[in-house]
Design goal:
By secondary structure, this protein is α+β, with helices and mostly antiparallel strands. The chain is 16% helix and 28% strand. It contains 6 helices and 13 strands. The strands form 2 sheets. Strands 2, 4, 5, 8, 9, 10 and 12 form a 7-stranded antiparallel sheet that branches. Strands 1-13-3-11-7-6 form a 6-stranded antiparallel sheet. A hairpin with a 2-residue loop joins β4 and β5. The longest helix has 13 residues. The structure holds zinc ion. The site of zinc ion has 8 residues, from loops.
């Protein structure tokens, strides 16, 4: 064990310094929710995918379409990945989304993409769990702080092999959807948005925690596709994540994905998100 550090005389004073928000987000481009909701009203359902428990599925959501992830049959959380359908190198960036919006995201907030694009990929337009807020433990729903359950951490901590972690589920689904081999598909799997999952950090040790999701059948999260998207959703082997994941112990249920196309002209006036304007010179001519 390392030696305890020496506490300075002015420790309390240093701790009492008030925090400042790292990334004030009031200069982010405006989200025109009313335009999205008006376009959604007459949108036509074009696709439906049922994600089996302890498995994943990929789907296509063209730019300007809407997609809904619903709880069906029982409480279930989902590990969610997003890619630019036209350039798989551009994918969801959970860390920057967290820096911009906070640890959990909800209606009006966006899933941002990796560098150098750094633009909104999808906007949440409706969240039936929006009422949950932040509970007494610091827990909230739909986090962008977890990574995804995976077989490597399982080997590291439990010294056991489990093949139906979200990482492996997403790898198989992405390989099947794109035609890539498992080996070529795996590097595309990235840190997720945890749909319906209730998580936070313990106040005493700062550890990542999960608790039973408040989601119930009928709850849903709905998105607007800002660019052409491939989505990947895994119905986590943790079920509602009330006890454990990475095993076949928890009760698991399917998740439903539905895709909706807007009517012609419904998005008139909407400006698609541009690539980030930074010139990428990094200080060299
Ligand atoms: Zn999982």
């Amino acid at each position: 064990m390392p030696n305890a550090s020496v506490c300075p005389k002015d420790a309390d004073k240093r701790r009492a310094v008030r925090p400042v928000i790292c990334y004030p987000n009031n200069t982010l481009p405006d989200v025109d929710l009313s335009l999205y909701l008006a376009a959604r009203r007459d949108a036509i359902k074009t696709d439906e995918i049922l994600v089996s428990p302890r498995d994943a599925a990929c789907f296509s959501a063209p730019q300007g379409h809407f997609f809904r992830i619903s709880s069906v049959e029982g409480p279930q959380v989902g590990d969610f990945n997003l890619w630019n359908r036209d350039n798989l190198q551009e994918h969801f960036y959970s860390g920057k989304t967290r820096a911009l919006h906070g640890t959990h995201i909800t209606t009006g907030e966006q899933m941002w993409s990796s560098f150098p694009a750094l633009r909104p990929m999808a906007t949440i337009i409706e969240d039936t769990l929006n009422w949950y807020g932040i509970d007494e433990f610091g827990g909230s729903v739909h986090d962008v702080i977890g990574t995804r359950c995976d077989p490597y951490t399982q080997q590291l901590l439990a010294r056991s092999t489990y093949h139906y972690c979200c990482h492996s589920n997403l790898t198989r689904a992405f390989a099947d959807f794109t035609g890539l081999s498992l080996a070529d598909a795996e590097p595309h799997i990235h840190d997720v948005m945890n749909v319906f999952m209730c998580t936070g950090f313990t106040r005493d040790t700062g550890q990542y925690f999960m608790k039973a999701s408040p989601v119930r059948p009928g709850d849903y999260l709905e998105f607007f596709a800002e660019i052409n998207l491939i989505g990947g959703l895994s119905a986590c082997p943790g079920g509602d994540c009330s006890s454990e994941h990475s095993s076949d112990v928890a009760a698991c249920y399917p998740l439903l994905i539905e895709v909706f196309a807007p009517q012609a002209g419904a998005l008139d006036g909407w400006i698609p998100p541009p690539l980030n304007a930074y010139d990428r010179s990094h200080g060299r001519c």
